[in-house]
């Protein structure tokens, strides 16, 4: 009921504030937030000019949100200083294609993903996704999760240079086992 909605909303705001503090030092200039949903995080990145893009227009967006097909970004090459992709890449039907597009339109890519390096992290992440998929009427998908080594291998194969890797816990209260990994990537010249 109403109490559950208020509690979920409070958790969403708390999470957005924590994630914003992690992402803010790595995000600069004109920024594209890929998979921004309602812009809860993007709206808090007040030091940059942010455009959001998602596969659907959410109810009550907090930033400008444009719709895309989940693969092709409708922007000119190198039109963003930073492309942000926060807990979204594991949902992509074609993550390689989406990464290639992010590298095409951005000079820097910041990826923030669920860390599933340990069995309990994977179980915790899958459990939370099962719950949130029901709350937000979204499909429940498990196939896109990768370990840190799996993400690093994908980035290397895509010709992306990793300039920073950070590990963060405590981003999703009250879900203490959920951890995240932040990757800062730059397209290489031979890409």
How would the global form be characterised? globular
Derived structural class: alpha/beta
Provide the gyration radius in Å: 16 Å
The share of residues in extended strands comes to 25-35%
Mean pLDDT: 90
Query: What count of helical segments does DSSP give?
Result: 4
Task: Provide a descriptive summary of the structure in words.
With 191 residues, the protein is an alpha/beta fold. The chain contains four helices and seven strands. It has a seven-stranded mixed β-sheet with strand order 3-2-1-4-5-7-6. The longest helix is centred in the first third of the chain and has 22 residues, at 2-23.
Short structural description:
With about 190 residues, the protein is of the alpha/beta class. It has helices at about 1-25, 95-105, 120-135, 150-155; strands at about 30-35, 50-55, 65, 80-85, 105-115, 160-170, 180-185.
Please supply descriptive tags for the structure shown above.
191 residues; 4 helices; alpha/beta
Give the SSE map:
Blueprint lengths: L1 H22 L6 E5 L14 E6 L10 E3 L12 E7 L8 H11 E10 L3 H17 L12 H10 L2 E10 L9 E9 L4
């Amino acid at each position: 009921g109403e109490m559950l909605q208020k509690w979920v909303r409070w958790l969403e705001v708390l999470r957005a504030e924590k994630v914003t503090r992690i992402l803010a030092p790595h995000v600069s200039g004109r920024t594209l937030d890929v998979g921004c949903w309602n812009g809860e995080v993007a709206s808090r990145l007040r030091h940059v000019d942010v455009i959001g893009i998602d596969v659907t227009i959410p109810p009550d967006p907090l930033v400008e949100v444009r719709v895309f097909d989940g693969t092709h970004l409708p922007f000119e090459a190198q039109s963003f200083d930073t492309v942000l992709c926060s807990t979204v890449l594991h949902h992509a039907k074609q993550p390689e294609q989406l990464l290639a597009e992010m590298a095409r339109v951005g000079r820097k890519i910041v990826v923030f993903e669920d860390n599933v390096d340990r069995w309990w992290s994977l179980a915790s992440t899958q459990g939370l996704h099962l719950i949130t998929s029901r709350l937000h009427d979204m499909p429940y998908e498990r196939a896109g999760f990768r370990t840190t080594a799996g993400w690093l291998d994908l980035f290397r194969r895509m010709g992306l240079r990793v300039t920073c890797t950070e590990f963060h816990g405590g981003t999703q209260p009250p879900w203490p086992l959920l951890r995240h990994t932040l990757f800062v990537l730059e397209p290489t010249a031979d890409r």
